[in-house]
Amino acid sequence: MKIAIINGSPKGKNSITLQTSIYLSKKYPEHEYKILNASQIIKLLEKDFTRAREILEWAEVIVFSYPVYTFIAPYGLHRFFELVKADGVDLSGKYATQISTSKHFFDVTAARYVEENISDLGMRYVTGLLADMDDLLNKKGREEAVSFFEYFVYSVNEGLDNSRPRRFTEGEYVPATVAVPETESCKELEGKDIVIITDETDPESSLSRMIERFKAKLGVMPRIVNISEYNLQGGCIGCFSCAVSGKCVYTDGFDEFLRTKIQTADAIVYAFTVRDHSMGSRFKMYDDRNFCNGHRTVTVGMPVGYLASGRYSEEENLSNIIEARASVGHNYLAGVATDETDPDREIDALISRLRYALINKYVPPKTFWGVGGMKIFRDLIYQMRGMMRADHKFYKKNGYYDFPQKKWWSSLPMYFVGFLLGNDKIRKKIRGKMNEGMLMPYTKLFKKEFGE
Ligand SMILES: Cc1cc2nc3c(=O)[nH]c(=O)nc-3n(C[C@H](O)[C@H](O)[C@H](O)COP(=O)(O)O)c2cc1C
After folding, report:
1. Which of the listed residues 6, 15, 105, 375 should we mutate to test ligand 1's pocket, taking the one with most ligand atoms within 8 A of CB?
2. pTM of the model
3. Would 178 be classed as within a structural domain?
4. Separation between Cα atoms, residue 4 and residue 37, nearest integer Å
């Protein structure tokens, strides 16, 4: 088979993820392989796509190889999908799969994004390999890589694929009309710094009108940060130079800007157009560059909201990412207002919820996404504390190292319960009383609070 490996890591040939494909190519030399370091040379591909088109046309099957970057794929791969679609190269009917490495923090949402783009291009998708970044260095990881590859080859030979039935509407999107009323004022929000972060450049677009309505109805003037106008020199290159000091290798001042102009806000509203099942490549560049902040949840408690132009209701994966991001950051997600059916009502509701959260400091508890995500971060930062010094300091200071072994006070009584349940006679006696026992602290609480 002629196999094209599209390398979405900005590290090019130094990509950890790429090593899996190289390993497999050495194990299975009967196939032909070509590697395109797409993410690393994305600026060149923007100017001239010929090299990429040649490889894509040559290939019988395509492997997207990339690191997971902030819940999804890196900026370079986002941009690459934009370029492939703009070029119009016909990939329909070809087989495609993916190999990612990460610490498994939202590798699934990243994979779904890649799968959705593979589907857009009319390719036949075979479920990929979502590995830990260290997997290839251990026997089990290598075995998993090998069995993945054999499964992939088997699928291609047998004409099998895992493509899901399409559920995205094609064709031109026509947004509902957004009305922009007179500017209102709201005393309760006076002095609040609400920032709108957007990549919109067209003042006539539906998204611009959504922003205008939001500004008019909010009650105070929000600050606008346009990331298309900000001179970002490029996407994160994954060099980890920021791990100790938080200082980015780029000299565009974004690290400082992020800390002094964005993270200081009282609330953030992101305004974007749905593109290729994500917020688009410019937002991805912005998100990846946030890595200079490491894994520090510095905006805990800050309400966030979104203005989305496009068929957002079809984008289940993107919606998961947006909800998960809020949960991991322990932010209240005030909503995602879209221009699909009733933008005026949705924008006004978003404002009402933002206002409520700002005034009442409303923050709901984290969900599975936030709790699970932070446990991955906790273990990762602890293990890498020698290098990720800024994160380690932050996690120590904020008590994020809540390893189970520290909770003796809650695990000791379980030994006692375990001992009782281990004895047949006692277990029969206490059967049915377990639930009552578990309710005892609640009975105590009600007595204390309400005297019941
Ligand atoms: C900017 C940035 C964002 C990252 N985001 C995630 C993430 O969301 N989830 C995760 O598990 N790992 C994340 N990682 C870790 C990388 O996925 C991991 O180190 C990967 O193996 C790097 O592969 P590469 O060498 O092929 O680029 C991130 C790393 C960087 C530099």
Report:
1. 105
2. 0.96
3. no
4. 11
My answer on whether 210 and 304 are in the same domain is yes
Cα-Cα-Cα-Cα dihedral of 290, 296, 298, 304, to 10°? 60
CA–CA separation, 256 vs 242, rounded Å? Answer: 12
CB 321 within 8 A of CB 279: no
Of the chain, the percentage scoring pLDDT greater than 70 comes to: 100
Q: How does residue 408 score in pLDDT terms, banded at 50, 70 and 90?
A: confident
Same domain as 9, residue 135: yes
pLDDT of res. 405: 67
313 CA from centroid of ligand 1 (Å)? 28
Quick one: which atom of ligand 1 is closest to the CA of 104?
11
Counting from 1 in the atom list of ligand 1, the atom nearest the Cα of 290 is: 1
Give me the helix-helix angle, 281-289 and 75-87, nearest 10°.
Answer: 170
pLDDT of residue 386: 94
Domain presence at residue 379: no
Q: Average pLDDT in the 345-356 region?
A: 98
Task: Return the pLDDT at 251.
Answer: 96
Q: Name the residue at shortest CA distance from atom 16 of ligand 1.
A: 102
Residues 199 and 346 in one domain: yes
CA 73 to ligand 1 centroid distance, Å: 9
Looking at the structure, do residues 128 and 228 belong to the same domain, yes or no? no
318 and 435 fall within a common domain: no
Say whether both 15 and 138 belong to one domain.
Answer: yes
Contact between 361 and 345 (Cβ < 8 Å): no
CATH code of the domain in which 225 resides: 3.40.50.360
pLDDT recorded at residue 166: 84
The residue whose CA is least distant from atom 3 of ligand 1 is 69
Q: Are residues 196 and 340 in the same domain?
A: yes
Site to substitute for ligand 1 among 35, 70, 375, most atoms within 8 A of C-beta: 70
In this structure, are 152 and 208 located in the same domain? no
On whether residue 174 sits in a domain, the answer given is: no
The least confident of 8-12, 94-98, 178-182, 437-441 is 437-441
CA of 18 to the centre of ligand 1 (A): 13
Strand order in the sheet with 333-338: 223-226, 194-198, 267-273, 304-309, 333-338
Residues in contact with ligand 1 by the CB-under-6-Å rule are 9, 11, 15-18, 67-71, 101-107, 133, 236, 238, 288, 291
Domain that holds residue 425: 407-450
pLDDT at 413: 84
